[in-house]
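Researcher: Go.
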Amino acid sequence: MIRDERPGYNERLYLLWLGMVAALLVAVFQLARLQLGERATYAGYSRQNAVRFLPVPAPRGVIYDRAHRILARNRPMFQVEVVPGSLPEEKEEGVAVLQRTLDLLQRPPVSLGQPISMTVPISATGVSEGIQLLFDDPEAIWQKVEQERLGAAYRRILIATRVPRAVAFHLEELSPVLPGIRVSVEPVREYPAGSLTSHILGYMGAIPPTLKNQYEEKGYRPDQKVGLSGVEASYEDFLRGVDGEKEIVVDVRGNIVRVLGERPPTPGNNLVLTIDLDLQRKVYEILRRHLELKGAQSGVVILEDVRTGAILSMVSLPTYDDNLFARGIDPDRYNELIQDPWRPLLNHAISGIYPPGSVFKMVTASAALQEGIITPRTRILTEGELWLPNKYFPDDPTQAQKFVCWINKYGGKHGLINVSQALEVSCDIFFYVVGGGFKEFPGLGNDTLAWYARQFGYGEKSGIALPGEHPGLIPTSKWKRLNYAESWTTGDTYNMAIGQGYVLVTPLQVVNATAAIANGGILYRPKIVYQVVDAEGYLVQDFTPEIIRRLPVEERHLETVRYGMYLAVYGPRGTARTVALPGITIAGKTGTAEFAADLDGDGRIDRDEEGNLPTHAWFTAFAPYEDPEVAVVVFVFGGGEGSATAVPIAREVLAAYFGVVPTPLQEASPEGGD
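Model: Structure:
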């Protein structure tokens, strides 16, 4: 082997030098490849890690009453969230950050400017006043973090809402030592009137899982809140606005370094309702006070403008405070509400269905006049009771079925009366005969009566812009055959003619039908929203009266019915005499509807000592009689006689509407009244 004998030559040093040169060439090549060949790719990765797009929620539209008093607005609420991608990757470190955050959230609230010591013990209650923790165990949060890291590392996990301002600010100050913990400000709804308007306004909440895809198609974020009831739900598309977006640069801890750009949000539109808040408050207090006096639990009052269909006041009791849902309702409190047998979350004005009793008699009267079954002068002898012969054994009196008038229990009768007088005294016998016939008198018959009832808006939704409206029930012979496998009988028609039997209606349907009688036969679609305006105050949608249909009843026949309602208040035997007010002429109709229920939970249908079923109290009216302006309906669940319970409520409500001072109550009908 030949060796190089030159001075200073070292073979090992030479090989080392060659290795260094080779490594340098490889490094230069790799650097060139990264800088030149794949620069765009890695720059994209870097930008993806540093640059993020944050949604900027659009302010939701404000809701006003007809006088532009605020009914629903937005207020800021602090929330605490975890960003999985910014939390330490080691479980021990990550759980420690989460535990420290929960400790801070569970300390007693402090005022602004007061330092929060890291050694302050957790309060006895474990949670600051008002705060709502979605997690109380750091291990549970960590499991959620690990799940999100696989596909949505920067999708924030909400861990606490309703965080006090002082606590939120302190967490912001500690952000350098709490990586992955973020404080955000979420606009939430505030309803200044609370329970006064909860059934009308409704509330907001998380997107229901069954509707998630539907909302995502409309551009909603998974964590967005949406209207779930009331006008918050029915006018969601108008109120929501369009979210903006902010492009930001963050450091390795996820802290915002700078803002690259921002697209501002477009605020939602504002709503102006037809409701008058002052009137709503008065009606609420009147109904609440009378329910307490009566010992009743549920009732409804609605006022409607008969000239346009605008709803001026709608009160349903019992009720709830929609601010509970805006702040995030406690599960125990929510369970109390949904398990309450009187169903405070239900708007009984549009969703509750009840037998109408005698307030239905205006339909029977109108139909009989229009069909020529009777004229305004037709008089029928009413003896307080009626024996309907059995159609299979017409000559056998023992097979006949007895039908009685309400006055029969007082030992009285109404005698020979016409249709206006029958409305005045609310005679059941008269309407039995007119509706179902008797001997040679033909009567309307079920199918004809049902057709007219639907023309008055019964048995169908009115289309008011509130979710949850019930169509009620107007039965037919076909309906009974399909549901009970039984034939329709004349007795069924008798019951239907006086608003009993299978007939079920909502209070809104009753007041809307009354308004149609008052205004000369126009059945309007009830409206709850007067205007939609944008954030700048420009009109987007104006109130326009909408006609559902014109009643197929001639004006002269409606005038006869209106006169009967006038006699109910001012006639010598009127059942609603106590509703009269000074300076305002009122026309109305009382109603007392029997119903079968087990309210005490003993497994038996409730009856009084004499075996009578409990009754709902109804009253509907319009005023002034000469130039109708407003219609009202009062309903009290299990309230007894309409003349005794519902009429005094209507009297105070109409006095509040017209701004008059009621005089001492007039003498009621000597027989009482239904």
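Model: The CA atoms of residues 67 and 423 lie 38 Å apart.
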